[in-house]
Specification:
The protein is about 45% helix and about 20% strand. It is of the alpha+beta class and about 425 residues long. It folds into three domains: about 10-25 and about 130-205, no CATH class; about 35-115; about 215-250 and about 285-419, Nucleotidyltransferase, domain 5. Strand 4 and strand 5 (about 165-170) form a beta hairpin. The radius of gyration is 26 Å and the shape is globular. This is Transposase, IS605 OrfB family. In the C-terminal section; belongs to the transposase 35 family.
């Protein structure tokens, strides 16, 4: 049978757009609704169980209900389906049920491990749709790959998905299509976004790297300072400008959202549900399309910068920024959200592993305030700390002139290199 997904050393994720028929769209919606229902049912049973266990008096009805809920939670696939018979419909993917249960248990596991993600909450019904299934391989298959599982590529344009059947897709990288016989498919997510575009996300694994890993002889290292004035400044003095994608369309988006709000008020005055208000739904798609384009432009920019840094350097050092804390500054919150620091650092983390390079997040103390030449810290010895308006300064100890962001990038690199 070969190695499992967890045993394979290299993993990769790819998201491609699909074009389902009207019947397939109905199947996707039913599976999405069922997945959300199962997740919420398990959450409801756990919440009820928690409240019942707080009753200290040994009441027979309460004890019996606790035993019933515990039994259902041990085997929720049958426990929930026996009560709600519609979950046994043939159009529903059985692996969707298993993945909904797995995701709920994973949410609890993450809460117990991190304690910051919060306990699982009820999933609200939204315009977006999503459910997960899995790719299964028959026992007789000796080498599982992208063309012999329950989810498989039929050719360069069509993919087969359980219950949905044949789907046309677009956007699969050519390097994956060329190696499809050596790549295994794991979890598969079918989704629809707010603009009513459908996608399939594939979790892939292989015995060989998905990219060509090269190690340069020069062992180049670089430090980067992230800021809002410009996107980043590296330790070599290079500056990447901040594109400010959200700010560029803020006025257009605000106008579209005002129009959406007016249409919502009119529909409510006429006692029409927003789901059935055609003008409201049309304008909602306009707003969602503007937001999608901004998100795609930002994501493409971050991918280009992160890939370039990782491929051209053996060590990349960056400051570990806590965006959650920085967003409390209301004067900079919009700029920080627009620049996408956490997404960028996440890309550097997984791409370093993908390309066989090293990414080192560090937490240096006062990198903009410290002279990288002599180590003098502004704010000491009767000096004033630098403000955000001070973009260049001269060290009072060694008289060396600094560009604020370049100096910070050099300090970050020194912190990453020094053990």
């Amino acid at each position: 049978m070969g190695q499992t997904m967890a045993q394979l050393p290299y993993h990769y994720g790819v998201k491609v757009r699909i074009f389902p028929s009207s019947e397939q769209k109905r199947f996707i919606k039913r599976n999405s609704d069922a997945s959300r229902f199962i997740y919420n049912e398990m959450n409801g049973m756990n919440r009820e169980l928690y409240q019942l266990k707080r009753v200290k008096i040994p009441i027979g009805v309460v004890q019996q209900r606790i035993q019933t809920l515990e039994q259902r939670l041990k085997n929720p696939a049958t426990g929930i389906s026996n009560i709600h018979g519609w979950l046994n419909d043939n159009v529903l993917d059985s692996l969707m049920k298993a993945n909904a249960i797995k995701n709920y248990r994973a949410a609890w596991k993450m809460f117990r491990k991190v304690h910051q993600s919060g306990t699982p909450v009820f999933h609200r019904k939204r315009i977006e749709q999503k459910y997960q299934t899995s790719c299964l391989y028959p026992g007789k298959v000796k080498s599982p790959n992208m063309i012999n599982g329950s989810v498989r590529l039929l050719d360069h344009q069509y993919i087969q998905v359980p219950k949905l059947g044949r789907l046309r897709f677009r956007g699969m990288p050519a390097k994956l299509l060329a190696r499809k016989q050596g790549i295994r498919i794991g979890t598969v997510t079918i989704s629809m976004d707010a603009t009513e575009r459908y996608y399939v996300s594939l979790q892939l694994a292989s015995e060989h790297s998905f990219v060509i890993q090269t190690v340069s002889k020069s062992q180049m290292a670089i430090g980067i300072d992230l800021n809002t004035a410009n996107f980043l400044t590296d330790s070599n003095g290079n500056v990447v400008a901040n594109p400010r994608y959200y700010r560029s369309i803020k006025g257009k988006l605000a106008k579209a959202q005002r129009k959406l709000s007016h249409r919502a008020l009119r529909a409510k005055k006429e006692h029409r549900q927003l789901l059935n208000a055609k003008n409201y739904q049309k304008q909602r798609r306009v707003v969602a399309d503007i937001q999608r384009k901004v998100a795609n432009r930002r994501r493409n920019f971050l991918h280009l910068i992160s890939t370039t840094l990782i491929k051209n350097h053996d060590l990349v050092v960056a400051e570990e920024l806590r965006s959650k804390n920085l967003l409390r500054n209301h004067a900079l919150a919009m700029s920080i959200s627009d620049v996408g620091w956490r997404t960028f650092l996440g890309m550097l983390t997984y791409k370093a592993t993908l390309y066989g390079k090293k990414f080192e997040p560090v937490t240096p103390r006062n990198p903009p305030q410290t002279c990288h030449n002599c180590g003098f810290i502004m704010g000491s010895r009767d000096t004033h700390k630098l403000t955000l308006a001070d973009r260049a300064w001269t060290c009072p100890a060694c008289d060396m002139q600094h560009v604020r962001d370049h100096n910070a990038a050099q300090n970050i690199l020194a912190k990453g290199i020094t053990p």
